[in-house]
Design brief:
4 strands; 4-stranded parallel sheet; Rossmann fold; globular; 290 residues; alpha/beta; 7% strand; 14 helices
């Protein structure tokens, strides 16, 4: 593609929010909408993992309508693994990177609920989590090594809970836009993309997920959003009994397992994350922001 054609076809991101999952990436996308350039009609294009074979020109078109006077980017929780990072380094070596971290037990229990909701698993949490890779600290070190610390913003979920406005202000300064009030956004300080119950019927959830995935593969995001507003996804994925609180014994075992990961994050960030290592009085591993 010639340079002029490439320019008219779109642009590439100035910043990426790379996850890991269930650490308020949905909230961040919603808070930035209308104030920075983001993919049209969809939160996650998921180019660097699921759609890489479509080519970089395909990815660029998602930013074709972004205001040229504003930085543009994508908040995609699946970009945290090394395979995505290597592709991002290749195509976007000067990109600014936002890494969001959350109490590892809370984050994984929240992700497990998402897996049950989407009929990805029928296992109990402790069985399911055994297949989960341990390595938020190692992942952050990789981003630091490949992009430099000055181009990587580290966000801690506890800070969002404590002061959403200050959390957003840090992001604005990092990506290069003027800070603005959360009152100017649709999301405000409220929690989003949270859920308290599994599907009423796993078979129905699987069918709903297959339909949604089929529509995604055809980039039918407007249809997906329309069906969401009509209540179809809630009907497919909600309606069961409430998820139980995480058993204290399971939580204790997982906190011991993830302690080295948290200590690696402490060393890299200079933050005291003791509550993540030993638990706190926050009511267990609940689901806060998606």
């Amino acid at each position: 593609m010639a340079a002029g054609d490439r320019e008219s076809a779109g642009r590439l991101p100035d910043f990426l929010g790379v996850g890991p999952p269930r650490a308020a990436t949905s909230w961040l996308d919603a808070a930035l909408r209308g104030h920075a350039g983001l993919p049209r009609a969809v939160k996650e294009v998921d180019f660097f993992i699921e759609n890489y074979q479509r080519g970089i020109d395909w990815y660029m078109k998602y930013f074709a309508d972004c205001d040229p006077n504003l930085p543009c980017g994508e908040i995609c929780a699946s970009y945290f693994p090394a395979v995505a990072r290597e592709r991002i380094v290749k195509h976007l070596p000067r990109c600014k990177i936002i890494c969001t971290f959350r109490d590892p037990v809370e984050r994984r229990y929240s992700f497990y609920k998402l897996a049950v909701r989407n009929a990805w698993t029928s296992e109990d949490f402790e069985t399911w989590v055994q297949n989960d890779e341990v390595g938020d600290g190692a992942g952050l070190r990789g981003w630091f090594d490949d992009f430099g610390r000055d181009r990587v913003l580290v966000l801690i979920h506890d800070d969002l809970e404590a002061d959403p406005q200050a959390y957003l202000d840090r992001v604005c300064r990092f990506i290069g836009i003027a800070p603005y009030s959360l009152a100017e956004t649709e999301v405000g300080a409220r929690r989003i993309n949270t859920f308290s119950a599994p599907p009423r019927n796993p078979k129905l959830a699987r069918r709903g997920r297959k339909l949604r995935d089929w529509l995604k593969s055809r980039e039918a995001y407007r249809t997906i959003n329309l069906l969401g507003r009509a209540g179809l996804w809630r009907y497919c994925f909600d309606g069961g009994d409430r998820f139980e609180a995480l058993a204290p014994a399971v939580e204790a075992r997982l906190r011991a397992r993830y302690r080295p990961e948290v200590e690696a994050l402490e060393e890299l960030t200079g933050r005291d994350l003791s509550a993540w290592k030993f638990g706190s009085n926050r009511g267990g591993a609940g689901d806060r922001r998606g």
